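Hey all, sorry for the wall of text incoming. These are the two entities for the joint prediction.
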Amino acid sequence: DIVMTQTPLSSPVTLGQPASISCRSSQSLVHSDGITYLNWLQQRPGQPPRLLIYKISNRFSGVPDRFSGSGAGTDFTLKISRVEAEDVGIYYCTQATQFPWTFGQGTKVEI
Amino acid sequence: EVQLVESGGGLVQPGGSLRLSCAASGFTFSSYTMSWVRQAPGKGLEWVSTFSGSGDSTYYADSVKGRFAISRDNSKNTLYLQMNSLRAEDTAVYYCVGSLDYWGQGTLVTVSS
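and here's what came out:
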């Protein structure tokens, strides 16, 4: 199974300041079709997860442009350019390149 | 508007069975890969099972293989998860997921005597 490792696990942030979360996979996430199925999810308190970023760097519908994703191969990053209060929650990276799909441990972003 | 509405959760004794349902609307259900993902209380996310949108391929986590069965009825836009031989460690909120794009609100399954 592909192991997804996130750092940090907790990220105190200041409103208006940037934040960054790293995700490393135990093996390359490049699929045989050439696509890297690395996604980022946000889970606000008491809510189900929602998709933020898919295929490394594509923002899902309705996601503010302060969220951005980057990376390649086994190393990936989620950045929030200016943290807002509504960004509080837990962020997960997840790979859908191969079964079983796996998730990072989650990074708690708190003000 | 996309909606995924899970039902069927509840309290069940160890060794018992439950059948979860997920009613989908607002997107072309038949073409979507559909999955179940669970989250134990206070824990992270765990993928459980996937039914492909093309063909009839199904996939299971090792932790549920042989005990759970995923199915879908495209005529009813509904996804199912038949859960047998339930264990305490299956206690979780079960989310219905469309690709990874769309998530339901979840249904709580509690396995306890």
